[in-house]
Amino acid sequence: QGLVFLVGNGLGLALALYKCQAMGLLPTRPSDWLAFVTPPQRMEFTGGGLIL
Questions:
Q1: What is the pTM of this model?
Q2: Which of 17, 29, 52, 50 is nearest to 42 (CA)?
Q3: End-to-end CA distance of the chain
Q4: pLDDT value at residue 3
């Protein structure tokens, strides 16, 4: 019973980390940690809404 609890919590934590990484919330690039490293240039931009 305790082992199932630990495995379930481990899977929940792994899923939360995966989702945060997919949204870009985790500092995974060197520019996230060092102030003098320039962030990578975006290859494309997206936007939404109506053109008036």
A1: 0.58
A2: 29
A3: 60
A4: 96
